What we know:
By secondary structure, the chain is of the alpha/beta class. 50% of the residues lie in helices and 18% in strands. Strand 2, helix 2 (49-59) and strand 3 form a beta-alpha-beta unit.
Amino acid sequence: MKKISVVVPMYFEEEVANECYIRTKNVLEKISKYEYEIIFVNDGSQDRTMHILENISSDDKNVKVISFSRNFGHQAAVTAGLKYTTGDAVIIMDADLQDPPELIEEMIKLWENGNDVIYAKRKSREGETKFKLLTAKMFYKILDKLSDTKIPQNTGDFRLADRKVIDIINSLPEHNKFLRGLFSWVGFKQTPIEYERKKRIAGKTKYSLGKMIKLASNGITSFSTKPLKILGVLGGISVLTSFIILIYAIVSYIFKLNQLTAGWTSLMVTITFLGGMQLLSIWLISEYVGKIYDETKQRPEYIIDKKINID
């Protein structure tokens, strides 16, 4: 009998842990022709999340738990969960139930029809601020323009992937993974499934502005070198502009077309612009250098403190 695996990262989710388990289990038990496992990954939560997961896993051997030694981040938690899956199809979803488990049944039907990856595409996003909606829209548009890999817009990590796809993702050695980009990069037959994204049933989002910026930066630098090429183009334009100004000044002096005087405003604007461009360039290059530095250290993406119901 084939098996379905569900990976659920958790970080300070004591208010939703039980409800997430119950709803996910109910959906999987309805699909009786498949065995199933639910892998919860405790990403260093300091509340009662781990205690709740221990109680659930002691009563249900289909539930497996991985607990980190500290918080390593959402992408690391998903990566760890994928590594320990044994299912023929693997589903990634968040614990807050904004990713509805009830969609799993439809995802499985699409998988049975020959699709290797089924990614959930949001038609709407309830309970989120206008600022977050705007920044998310901007991020996906920028990523789409810059990336050499076509990454679907309005998607997160909520998806189903076939075993062969998961095996390839698990084999990739890179750190700081941007998983939704990697799933697009590997190819295979992929299809979307649209859904209405509801607001959290309880608690608050753990994705702060800083974490969202870090994820966006990681996504762009992982899948594109175009920002570096853009800097080269801007540098070339700046050099060309300076030559034009120099030629204009020489011609004006020789033919006395205009009496040039050293203007404080133009001088400061030029210095500020070029200085800002240089600092921006250094920052952008440092992002790429930092990623190279992280890869060369060869540190693990995460450290596991405890495993339950996992051989």
